[in-house]
């Protein structure tokens, strides 16, 4: 049975082609609500440590009319920005209902936050519903959070045994649906394109042979099958990392959503608005780099504030190992008709 999951972008420089699979992840829908709470400041212990806080904050001006946070998560970046910047209204999006619930609790001290359960590719519909014509700052923090990885029932991690789910929105197609119905060739192509897995064909063959004998039902079962193909001495990066990445990206249509979201953010941003994206693997970063550079070449587009991505300092990486793979790219929206110009040089570590 040929399935088609969503379009996703392969690196332009690569000759790889995406698997032609047939159904698309369901949209989570948009539900916009306003939050009103005490303005009293409070310190909240978050289940997820935000990365590049100082670096990110340095790019945003002190006074911001409307800030659009496309991936509110646990509210770590939001809490920092709301405490250190004068922001009139903070619009918080997330397709994960669990993340929104945690963010609401974490940001209870702030009375200028409005929430919407939505994919950031649907930001225009959310802003229209909230009657927000344009935004002055945008943040996208891409990928999975620590709290998602720690919830076994979500199926994102091979270190916690659970169902092979991986849905950010908790609705629609799951990763197991892909594993159960994709052909061997489609799985191999998926692991190669979205996971950059060199042994994609061998892994796909083993998985298809296994599912003919018995269902592949749990994350531990899947990880063990990949271990058999690649081998592992219980140290270093787990051999199933790239397979899990590929399935998660496909399940949530992440790369297509990122490109659409970035293009929409540039379109919705007011002149001089700051747009920042934090990515955690090369496929995401290539898309951000390409979209920003294309926009920087057109009149009325953007100015690159980071010629190369900003990365975390070694001290942060030691405290939070997840920060080691984080890359921050930032642009500023130009005035209509403004000719592209080079941006300022940032003082933080670049790579």
TrEMBL record:
CDD domains for this protein: AdoMet_MTases (cd02440)
**Which keywords label this protein?**
Methyltransferase, S-adenosyl-L-methionine, Transferase
What InterPro entries does this protein's entry cite?
A: RsmH, SAM-dep_MeTrfase_MraW_recog, SAM-dependent_MTases_sf
Tell me the first and last residues of the signal peptide. Answer: none
| A GO term for molecular function | rRNA (cytosine-N4-)-methyltransferase activity
Cite the Pfam families for this sequence: Methyltransf_5
A GO BP entry: rRNA base methylation
Q: What family does the entry list?
A: Belongs to the methyltransferase superfamily. RsmH family.
Q: Identify the HAMAP family for this entry.
A: 16SrRNA_methyltr_H (MF_01007)
Q: What is this protein called?
A: Ribosomal RNA small subunit methyltransferase H
């Amino acid at each position: 049975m040929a399935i088609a999951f969503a379009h996703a972008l392969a690196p332009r420089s690569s000759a790889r082609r995406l698997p032609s699979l047939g159904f698309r992840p369901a949209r989570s829908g948009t539900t916009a609500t306003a939050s009103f709470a005490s303005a009293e400041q409070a310190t909240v212990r978050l289940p997820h440590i935000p990365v590049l806080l100082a670096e990110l904050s340095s790019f945003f001006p002190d006074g911001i009319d409307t800030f659009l946070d496309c991936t509110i998560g646990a509210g770590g970046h939001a809490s920092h920005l709301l405490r250190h910047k004068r922001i009139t209204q903070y619009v918080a999006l997330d397709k994960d209902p669990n993340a929104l619930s945690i963010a609401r609790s974490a940001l209870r001290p702030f009375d200028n936050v409005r929430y919407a359960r939505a994919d950031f590719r649907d930001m225009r519909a959310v802003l229209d519903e909230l009657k927000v014509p344009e935004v002055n700052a945008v943040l996208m923090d891409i990928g999975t959070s620590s709290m998602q990885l720690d919830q076994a029932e979500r199926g994102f991690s091979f270190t916690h045994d659970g169902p092979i789910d991986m849905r950010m929105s908790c609705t629609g197609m799951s990763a197991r649906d892909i594993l159960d119905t994709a052909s061997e060739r489609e799985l191999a192509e998926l692991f190669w394109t979205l996971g950059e897995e060199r042994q994609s064909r061998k892994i796909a063959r083993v998985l298809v042979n296994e599912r003919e004998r018995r269902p592949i039902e749990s994350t531990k079962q899947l990880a063990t099958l990949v271990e058999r193909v690649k081998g592992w001495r219980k140290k270093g990066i787990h051999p199933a990392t790239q397979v899990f990445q590929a399935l998660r990206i496909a399940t949530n249509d992440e790369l297509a959503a990122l490109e659409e979201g970035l293009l929409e953010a540039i379109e919705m941003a007011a002149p001089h608005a700051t747009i920042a994206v934090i990515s955690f693997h090369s496929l995401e970063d290539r898309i951000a780099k390409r979209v920003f550079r294309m926009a920087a070449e057109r009149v009325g587009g953007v100015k690159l504030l980071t010629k190369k991505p900003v990365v975390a300092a070694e001290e942060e990486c030691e405290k939070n190992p997840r920060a080691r793979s984080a890359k921050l790219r930032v642009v500023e929206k130009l005035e209509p008709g403004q000719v592209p110009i080079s941006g300022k040089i940032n003082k933080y570590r670049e790579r």
